Amino acid sequence: IRCWSNIPFITMPLSRAHGKSFAHRSELKHAKRIVVKLGSAVVTRGDECGLALGRLASIVEQVSMLQNQGREMMIVTSGAVAFGKQRLRHEILLSQSVRQALHSGQNQLKDMAIPVLEARACAAAGQSGLMALYEAMFTQYSICAAQILVTNLDFHDEQKRRNLNGTLHELLRMNIVPIINTNDAVVPPPEPNSDLQGVNVISVKDNDSLAARLAVEMKTDLLIVLSDVEGLFDSPPGSDDAKLIDIFYPGDQQSVTFGTKSRVGMGGMEGKEGIFFFFFFFLGGALWALQGGTSVVIANGTHPKISGHVITDIVEGKKVGTFFSEVKPAGPTVEQQGEMARTGGRTLAALQPEQRAEIIYRLADLLTDQREEILLANKKDLEDAENKGRLALPLLKRLSLSTSKLNSLAIGLRQIAASSQDSVGRVIRRTRIAKALDLEQVTVPIGVLLVIFESRPDCLPQVSALAIASGNGLLLKGGKAAHRNKILHQLTQEALSIHGVKDAVQLVNTREEVEDLCRLDKLIDLIIPRGSSQLVRNIQKAAKGIPVMGHSEGICHVYVDTDASVEKVTRIIRDSKCEYPAACNALETLLIHRDLLRTPLFDQIIDMLRVEQVKIHAGPKFASYLTFSPSEVKSLRTEYGDLECCIEVVDSVHEAVEHIHKYGSSHTDVIITENEKTAEFFLQHVDSACVFWNASTRFSDGYRFGLGAEVGISTSRIHARGPVGIEGLLTTKWLLRGDNHVVSDFSEHGSMKYLHESLPLPQRNTN
């Protein structure tokens, strides 16, 4: 016997011979045998009489889905007491109404009193109806269900235990879902302290302890406990500082606070003894099952927004409720990292501009000083990727890092440091509201940024430098370059340490799914995805209440006008397509004016693309002009990310603009022409983040724009658009300085008048 919080607790199950529980949520998808425990509050209605039929139907649907996937599902259910209570109340009301109608008249029906109903009688009356309901619901999914009623004696008697075990295994073998419940019609009153006198055993006193005991006996992979609480909290649920415990580890009991028992059913008691009883069988049972090799998740099965998929979400490894794990990570949780980033970011924002710049200069120096260590880590990542064959050649190229790239990266960081001197706290508007009442609008950091990136080697230091310059806390979730990301993050924290703000930039190394990170709306203020269009779309879909800055696709166009210069056309097209074909600002669709077909200029374009080994796809109109055409494009809205492009024909600059608006992604679009009027029409009418005249699409970049670097290119229409540098990571707040001013002074009969005078801005530091 081990003692936690002065409460003896049994550490070993009676008999358990299978392996350890799952260490991480992501492993739950491998669970084969699953027990779902349904608390009374989940199964019953809010009025405590009758069943929550819609909720129950949703649970049956989820269990059926998992059963049909080949899993072995078992349900430990409450609800018999509530169902029986409804039936008995109905019978009593009907009986009383008949008697009173015969003896007292109809006018006294409203004064009828319903006697207190004994719980065991309610259970006896409700068991058959509850099972009939389960059978009817499972039949809709061609699944058979079977009822098993048990008591504590069934587990203490060895022969009965073997019989029960054999029955359950046979039902599972026949693809039948066992519906198990304590036989509340005969169960004795709960005795909260009786288990303290036994060793290696947990008694069956309610459905919580039954579910834990059953999970251990049946060597279950996963126990899902659904109730009317979100999970375990570190302080009373509902209090201002209450936080849901995402992962609970044995030994953490001191951090858990419980409230009162569930509103319905037979389990638990009020008062001090009731809290202990709830502790022992709710938390204690879960820990007992965990030590027996069964993973446990406690979650809310009543919330209308999640109850329809709570079970399947848990099995898929999503962050729902509290997950019990015996493997405690060495570092902080992602929630703790989020808090550290926010606290560190606020301290960072309070530094002097020169101090933030000094941190970035130090990081730039470290990138060049430690280049050998960085390149060695990058080499390991490339070897890992090649050995596993998990990346295509264009992505492998994006993953590579060289001395020249590190030098360019350091130069860009120094540009950021130089341009960040007056970014935070800059006054952008001053207004005199009234005499001695002045209003200022100043720039401030957004808060905590979550940047999710895939393979680009320059992303981590660039984004870190921009976050430091703008005073934002930063969470980084890297992709397939663990060795390189680790060393770059260490160097970033070393630079931050010179002014004591090491925690402002955090690298998430835990096995957090991206979708789970996108749900941390209380910790994260802005999500910035850096990667493939699929990654961006997935994040935009998964983000719950957190704005996402980015672009889902980089479908960039180059339009060659009839007045285009022969010397400029091939240079610009080659650079746009071939300089870095995997980049989001690379050319994907080449629009050719119809009059240029079968001209020497057109032939030069085609010859150049062939020499560069660019695969050409013909658009519908282009294909119609050719007897033997290249393969016709499947979609005009395609981002190739490789040495491929589409060629399409248009009749005018107007048609080129219409094509871009219909098939483009509002990223970067280019016109090549010597006609200034045509160029200006294109520049003014193309509604994209970046529109160029006689310049490569590859100029769409924060470094090339003189921003030092970028956190990404945004195609959204609010806040920031195009390459996003320091300015895009800032928002504003209003500062009002007064002297005993109140609004009533400005009323019709007040003593003061509004002035609303614009005041000059303080001179900016341009050094």
TrEMBL record:
Listed NCBIfam families: P5CS, PRK00197.1, proA
Source taxonomy: Eukaryota, Metazoa, Chordata, Craniata, Vertebrata
GO CC, one annotated term: mitochondrial matrix
Organism: Calypte anna (Anna's hummingbird)
GO MF annotation list: ATP binding; glutamate 5-kinase activity; glutamate-5-semialdehyde dehydrogenase activity
PANTHER family: DELTA-1-PYRROLINE-5-CARBOXYLATE SYNTHASE, GLUTAMATE SEMIALDEHYDE DEHYDROGENASE
Domain called Aldehyde dehydrogenase: residue spans: 334-597
Ranges where the Aspartate/glutamate/uridylate kinase domain occurs: 32-272
Pfam families tied to this protein: AA_kinase, Aldedh
Biological pathway: Amino-acid biosynthesis; L-proline biosynthesis; L-glutamate 5-semialdehyde from L-glutamate: step 1/2; Amino-acid biosynthesis; L-proline biosynthesis; L-glutamate 5-semialdehyde from L-glutamate: step 2/2
Record key words, sorted: Amino-acid biosynthesis, ATP-binding, Kinase, Membrane, Mitochondrion, Multifunctional enzyme, NADP, Nucleotide-binding, Oxidoreductase, Proline biosynthesis, Transferase, Transmembrane, Transmembrane helix
Identification of the protein by name: Delta-1-pyrroline-5-carboxylate synthase
GO terms classed as biological process: L-proline biosynthetic process
SUPFAM superfamilies in UniProt: ALDH-like (SSF53720), Carbamate kinase-like (SSF53633)
Described purpose of this protein according to its UniProt entry: Bifunctional enzyme that converts glutamate to glutamate 5-semialdehyde, an intermediate in the biosynthesis of proline, ornithine and arginine.
Similarity comment: family membership: In the N-terminal section; belongs to the glutamate 5-kinase family.
Reactions the enzyme catalyzes: L-glutamate 5-semialdehyde + phosphate + NADP(+) = L-glutamyl 5-phosphate + NADPH + H(+); L-glutamate + ATP = L-glutamyl 5-phosphate + ADP
